[in-house]
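Residues determine shape. We examine one folded chain.
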Amino acid sequence: MAKQQNIFVYGTLKRGQCREQCWPLPPISVTAAWTLGTVYDLGPYPAMIAGSSRIAGQLWTYTESQIDAVRKELDCIEVTNQPGYPNEYDRVEIEVNLLDGSKLLAETYLFSRPAELTKIGRLVPSSLRLEQADYVIWPLSSPWLEAI
């Protein structure tokens, strides 16, 4: 079995959002997941930084042979590692939680200038309660589990 690579998304790259069509390859799977962080609404897209809220998102899974093409496209979208441009987001590895209680590692994109967020964005509060826990979801009208 080929090794799998995971990418956690929490904004415009989720199913049902405006950049869903930007994924360069179809995933093996898309699963509801969450991680800890803080999310700011920047208007047309969100920005996540380290924090302690449960951030609802999706885990997109690819084979190891696909991941370089996926990273290259997502890095362009997120303005990460682009020659001549400062990073808007940094691609990092985080711990992600699945709804069945299992945990795994995934890459995600965190906003590279967290000190600026209070000036340029609005903190997104918890908006969904599931199994005795509050979750932050962006945008507020976005279905989380139904989009999987």
